[in-house]
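ingest -> validate -> predict -> emit
validate: passed (alphabet ok, no gaps, 464 aa)
predict: started
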Amino acid sequence: MERERRICRQDVFVAVLVACLGVNIWLVSKVFMDCNMMRMSWSGRSAMEAEAVGAITCSGHGRAYIDGDDSDGKSEPVCECNLCFQGTDCSVLIPNCKANADGGDPLFLEPFWVKHAASSAMVVAGWHRMSYTYNDESFMSKELEKLIRKLHAYVGNAITENRYILFGAGSSQLLAAAVHALSPTNSSAPPAAVLASVPYYELYRTQAELFKSTVFKFEGDARLWTNDSYADRQVIEFVTSPNNPDGLPNKAIVNGPNAKSIHDYAYYWPHFTPIPAPADEHLMIFTISKLTGHGGTRFGWAVIKEKSVYERMTTFIELNSMGLSTDTQLRVLKLLKIIVGARKERDIFDFGYNTMKSRWEKLKATFSTSSRFTLQTIPPQYCTFLRRVRESSPAYAWVRCKREEDKDCSAVLDAANIIGRRGSMFGAENRYVRLSLIRNQDDFDLLIHRLNKLVMEEDGNKTV
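emit:
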């Protein structure tokens, strides 16, 4: 009995000793961390502020931001709710809220960056790069340019060797610069005809119409132009591949000595399409928004073969905006280092592709029983990046209403509480509507719910 009591006392002693050691280790580590935070001076406070905001969950249906609204007088940031959610913590679903499938906000990649919060975070001093230019008097970061070349070599989607690289405020500024650069320099020459194959990205038309330029004019569908149409006139063709809105791989269809093309490769990434070979066109434009999801960062780049085109585009960018924000370039540098450095896992490309693949599987399952709606069909291809044959998983569903009476497909969906973008916005018939599949998970889940209900009601009691 005495022996058992001694053993018991020993066990208690060991337990107390372990607990004391644990408390001491915690206290020492806390002091060490506090000392480190004090030594960090200006950066420590910023890091603490970012951590505090990141800890606010908003019920998983919203986000709190450092620059968020504090008009309620509170010291802490407030939740900004996803569409169709409300409440102080975004936990309340708004009844009968419309599923928004309009726009191209690429928030489907947000969970990837939440997972990589530590490696993608930045703390920037107030004195960081206050000059208009870098030390070499240029508006572009040479380190970022080198990293972009590495990125394309890694993914295998574009050749950049012996090419010029130019940065712009998203692809939209570069598209305008490209049209300017390819237009006639002789003021007496007729304006260049700007063309795109229907269905085309609406910005091509609206930008050209906004500028009301005397050296170029948007003339519509490239398929309607024959060789005789531009015998004495310069032609600039927008070629979007994969295409926005239907996700099809496109090629230039206007040929001849007076024809030039601008290749918009915003979606030429493994998230959305197989990469059969690196693109090697004279003028190629990419954007960070569809690569990493950071649409608000406003960063794009052009890969250009001809020096004269590069120089004219550079002049446009410099006169239009005095180059690109150095803060933007720093953030993009940070993001791309994570992508290029994660080669073993392929990280963002695996995440992006698996997310889009899953969404397409759900969408196809929904429409598989429908006799009223159809989706675009894109044949599978071998992808050199994933090293296998794979289906396309485009950013948008190009939906067609088949019934004769459904001449406005967007209106049909709107009546079912679904917001899409009508076909006429892309130069096509309104029997078509574009649905965005790259918004956040809440938006997609609500879209599928509304579509399931719509399809189920086609024949009364159909189940999906």
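Confidence is low (pLDDT under 50) at residues 12-19, 25-33.
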